[in-house]
């Protein structure tokens, strides 16, 4: 009770500071928008955008006419993921940071810098992603190595993590079960938490949702922390139609790294999210889906002694969902789960091979979903002060299950004169139990492996070939769930077979002092592909399909000038997927191309992002065709003084109207939006 009361007080204090900090931006932003929207002609809108660019660029003259100030510089050393050392020997590894972002509206904005990642499903704060055409439960999301598992069919979302907490992300596309197990059939995304080198306070504002943010981060000796509060109203699309994407979020992160002893690092994160709107084309006529409460408490302890090291982690989550069908009924559900894990690893040298061993134990307890349905017997909504009358129709527990997983992992790598090779394998055992006692437990045994080689063609060129296998056991929801969802009544299937995948990837990479890049060709086949199909009117069930294949190409090219004054990145991907009958499989994103350009001048950095998403006409069941779209973002960072930094950006500068994904219930993306932020170092 003390913890809950303290966090409530902290949340109220942060809300006060959030409201106070927004006053600075209101005079500049809101009034500017009123001026822009009151004259709706394209010419006035065009001049207003030019005015914005001039506004954020105008300090440049000041910077040129004064002596540059002496700034304190910090060197940040990134902690590499445990799998990176081996895999980096056979193909390039990429991380993406926030240099070209200003107070992102969503942590997904950091991920979308990778050409392999696209938005998936319906929008809002808990929007999920697609990785090389794999989505939902087929990709693994991690926070500093801690798996984020969700019982939603849409898959896990990182929306509960404030963007200010994240420093960078690592993306590992392709079958990666050897390191991450069942959830990484299509790859994994690992978020790295920021480690502030000094204390600072930051306030931010986004015009489209009238979102206000305030965060405080600090560092004392071996301890650092971050606190953030964000709240947003409903935004609007490119044609000023309302989007149901409101939310309120308060989060706290604490990390300690002892200078001696067995414990090397310990951290915890608590995130409280309320009144989250689901941005959907169903809103508001057909369905209004709200997530009243979404809480996460997770943490990790890293230890090392002698030749052994390891981690202990946990994640407690709670999600409430309310679905209103006007003139019909209300369905409320509550999902709770406690996930935990332990791993220990060691390494050794054997005949010029570097060999790693690891034992993993993980599990899920108390995975429970409760549902209540209310029938609307009077007015479906409140009209002229007359309230709706909702009567309880039924109350049922739709899921009560648990699972335990044990795995042994081995990998080895070696470098020859011009060739590097790496191999790895995983032996995995899992037991899933229906704790309601209706169905007995189900066990599964799986083996996955990979092998890869890299050959140095010259001082700058490398070519590599990578083969990997992966598996995905059906989730607890796919096996045991039986209840109502926004899509209709869904039934689990205890007879589902494990998905099996084979992945092939060929890479050509170039690296010099100023230019780095790679081109990747990939082909992946999945057997026993699990999909949710309609078996009768408004009733869906999970079934195995025969085979599905996903193939494509992606590229990344990074360049920076010798004086670090100019940098550019060009990236893109082409992805296609179909089943054994030639039908398009779900979640395949449209082709995309992106250009990031940055200019560093004195104490300022300007950046722009040009993104093109091609049209999509080959769609699967539950999807819609998409038109092509071209968007432009522009922004700047200005180090005003040793303590003060200003940031500004304009996203979707040309106010394009487009769907966020091919999901047939996805809403339009947000229209143009101005982001402002000020950071003060303490």
UniProtKB/TrEMBL annotation:
It holds the Pfam family Plug. The keyword Repeat does not apply. It is a multi-pass membrane protein. It comes from the Bacteria. SUPFAM superfamilies: Porins (SSF56935). InterPro entries: Beta-barrel_TonB (IPR000531), Beta-barrel_TonB_sf (IPR036942), Plug_dom (IPR012910), Plug_dom_sf (IPR037066), TonB-dep_rcpt-like (IPR039426). It is found in: Cell outer membrane. Residues 107-188 form the TonB-dependent receptor plug domain. The chain crosses the membrane at residues 12-33. The keyword Membrane applies. Belongs to the TonB-dependent receptor family. Hemoglobin/haptoglobin binding protein subfamily. This is TonB-dependent receptor. It comes from Alteromonas gracilis. The lineage of its organism: Bacteria, Pseudomonadati, Pseudomonadota, Gammaproteobacteria, Alteromonadales.
């Amino acid at each position: 009770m003390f913890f809950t009361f303290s966090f409530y007080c902290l949340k109220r204090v942060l809300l006060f500071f959030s409201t106070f900090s927004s006053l600075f931006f209101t005079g500049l932003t809101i009034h500017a928008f009123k001026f822009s929207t009151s004259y709706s002609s394209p010419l006035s809108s065009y001049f207003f955008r030019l005015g914005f660019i001039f506004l954020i660029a105008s300090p440049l003259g000041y910077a040129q006419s004064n002596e540059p100030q002496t700034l304190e510089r910090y060197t940040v050393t990134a902690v590499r993921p445990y799998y990176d050392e081996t895999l980096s020997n056979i193909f390039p590894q990429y991380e993406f940071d926030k240099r070209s972002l200003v107070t992102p509206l969503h942590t997904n904005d950091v991920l979308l810098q990778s050409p392999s990642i696209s938005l998936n499903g319906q929008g809002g704060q808990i929007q999920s992603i697609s990785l090389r055409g794999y989505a939902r439960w087929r990709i693994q999301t991690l926070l500093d190595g801690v798996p984020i598992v969700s019982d939603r069919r849409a898959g896990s979302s990182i929306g509960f993590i404030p963007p200010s907490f994240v420093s960078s992300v690592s993306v590992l596309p392709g079958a990666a079960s050897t390191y991450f197990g069942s959830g990484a059939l299509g790859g994994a995304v690992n978020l790295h938490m920021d480690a502030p080198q000094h204390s600072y306070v930051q306030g931010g504002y986004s015009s489209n949702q009238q979102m206000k943010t305030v965060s405080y981060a600090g560092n004392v000796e071996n301890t650092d922390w971050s606190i953030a509060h964000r709240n947003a109203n409903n935004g609007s699309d490119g044609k000023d139609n309302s989007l149901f994407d409101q939310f309120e979020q308060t989060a706290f992160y604490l990390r300690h790294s002892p200078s001696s002893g067995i414990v090397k690092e310990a951290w915890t994160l608590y995130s409280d999210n309320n009144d989250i709107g689901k941005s959907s084309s169903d809103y508001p006529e057909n369905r209004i889906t709200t997530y009243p409460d979404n809480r996460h408490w997770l943490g990790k302890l890293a230890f090392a002694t002698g030749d052994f090291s390891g981690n202990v982690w946990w994640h407690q989550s709670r999600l409430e969902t309310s679905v209103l069908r006007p003139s019909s009924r209300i369905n409320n559900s509550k999902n709770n789960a406690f996930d935990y894990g332990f791993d220990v690893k060691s390494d050794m040298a054997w005949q010029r091979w570097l060999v790693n061993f690891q034992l993993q134990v993980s599990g899920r307890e108390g995975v429970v979903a409760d549902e209540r349905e209310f029938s609307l017997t009077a007015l479906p909504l409140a009209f002229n002060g007359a309230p709706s009358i909702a009567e309880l129709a039924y109350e049922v527990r739709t899921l009560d299950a648990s699972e335990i997983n044990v795995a042994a992992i081995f990998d080895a790598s070696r470098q020859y004169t011009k060739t590097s090779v790496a191999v790895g394998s995983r032996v995995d055992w899992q037991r899933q139990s229906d704790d309601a006692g209706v169905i007995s437990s189900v066990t599964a045994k799986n083996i996955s492996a990979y092998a890869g080689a890299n050959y140095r063609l010259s001082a700058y060129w490398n070519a590599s070939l990578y083969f990997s296998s992966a598996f995905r056991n059906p989730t607890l929801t796919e096996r045991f769930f039986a209840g109502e969802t926004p899509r209709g009544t869904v039934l689990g299937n205890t007879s589902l077979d494990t998905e099996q995948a084979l992945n092939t990837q060929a890479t050509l990479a170039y690296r010099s002092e100023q230019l780095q890049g790679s081109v990747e060709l990939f082909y992946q086949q999945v057997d026993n592909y699990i999909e949710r199909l309609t078996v009768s009117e408004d009733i869906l069930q999970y079934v195995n399909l025969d085979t599905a294949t996903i193939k494509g190409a992606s590229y990344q090219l990074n360049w920076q000038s010798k004086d670090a004054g100019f940098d550019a990145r060009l990236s893109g991907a082409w992805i296609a997927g179909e089943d054994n009958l030639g039908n398009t499989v779900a979640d395949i994103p449209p082709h995309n191309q992106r250009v990031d350009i940055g200019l560093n001048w004195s104490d300022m950095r300007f950046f722009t992002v040009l993104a093109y998403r091609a049209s999509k006409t080959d769609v699967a069941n539950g999807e819609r065709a998409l038109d092509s779209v071209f968007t432009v973002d522009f922004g700047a960072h200005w180090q005003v003084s040793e303590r003060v930094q200003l940031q500004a950006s304009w996203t979707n500068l040309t106010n394009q109207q487009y769907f966020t994904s091919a999901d047939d219930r996805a809403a339009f993306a947000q229209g143009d939006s101005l982001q402002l932020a000020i950071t003060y170092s303490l």
